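Thread amino acids onto this structure.
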């Protein structure tokens, strides 16, 4: 028997299912390139710059994947950040464009005195009638803060103004209501003729010749500021002979007072030389 015939008589092996699958896998791997098992691709296996947006799954990039300072202004969409994305205290003056914060950007009641620079608030920034006594500190308002003629009786509490609050010479007739003062409001010896309407005072010395008993003599004395209709009083500042009387009758004309001297002594009066007198007028 020839060797070929003997070979043909040998039994032929039948391929198993495992043989077929392993052979097929080998053919696919050799035909398509390198094959990788799951979770076996590392960073060094990827060429720099080869991972594209399309290769990233939705929401796959989080805080852990970003390095510090990696997100730039150009990476953030306009109007995409809200208060929820900002950490407390993260926005400072350097992050805010000048003039960009208006009323709508400020929450009600969110600004305190610590947020406002000293002297930063001007009169134009304060709404009319917006300040009450609760907003004004004790002794915070001085004379320079009060406009002339801006305070009337409605702004003052009853019995709140004392002499310590008034500057010398600051209260004149125009500041006092009609019939509002009584004697108890005026200090003793505090009024002079200059405080009385039409008040005037003049002094000097006069000389009288002898006057017969029972007779009177008229004469005129000058006093600046006297006007017709003013009341007048004349007073002798030195002793007069007994029975002699001196009195003023009227302001006869501007700056002129009519004065009368009478002798009721029972005898002719002696001549009186340089008698000092004082004249007062009232309106």
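Threaded sequence (283 positions):
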């Amino acid at each position: 028997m020839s060797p070929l015939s003997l070979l043909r008589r040998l039994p032929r092996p039948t391929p198993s299912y495992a043989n077929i699958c392993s052979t097929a896998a080998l053919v696919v791997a050799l035909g398509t390139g390198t094959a990788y098992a799951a979770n076996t691709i590392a960073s060094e296996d990827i060429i720099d710059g080869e991972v594209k947006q399309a290769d990233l799954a939705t929401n796959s990039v989080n805080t852990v994947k970003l390095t510090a300072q990696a997100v730039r202004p150009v990476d953030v969409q306009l109007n995409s950040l809200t208060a929820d994305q900002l950490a407390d205290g993260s926005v400072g003056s350097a992050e805010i464009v000048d003039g960009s914060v208006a009323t709508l950007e400020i929450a009600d009641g969110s600004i305190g005195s610590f947020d406002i620079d000293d002297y930063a608030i001007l009169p134009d920034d304060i709404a009319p009638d917006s300040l009450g006594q609760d907003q004004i500190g004790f002794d915070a308002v001085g004379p320079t803060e009060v406009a002339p003629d801006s305070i009337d009786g409605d702004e003052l509490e009853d019995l709140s103004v004392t002499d310590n609050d008034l500057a010398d010479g600051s209260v004149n007739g125009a500041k006092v209501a009609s019939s509002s003062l009584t004697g108890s409001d005026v200090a003793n010896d505090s009024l002079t003729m200059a405080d009385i309407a039409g008040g005037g005072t003049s002094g000097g010395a006069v000389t009288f010749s002898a006057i017969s008993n029972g007779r009177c003599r008229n004469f005129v004395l000058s006093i600046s500021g006297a006007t017709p209709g003013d009341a007048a009083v004349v007073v002798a500042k030195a002793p007069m002979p007994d029975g002699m009387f001196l009195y003023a009758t009227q302001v006869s004309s501007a700056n002129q007072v009519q004065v009368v001297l009478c002798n009721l002594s029972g005898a002719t009066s002696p001549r009186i030389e340089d008698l000092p007198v004082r004249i007062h007028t009232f309106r």
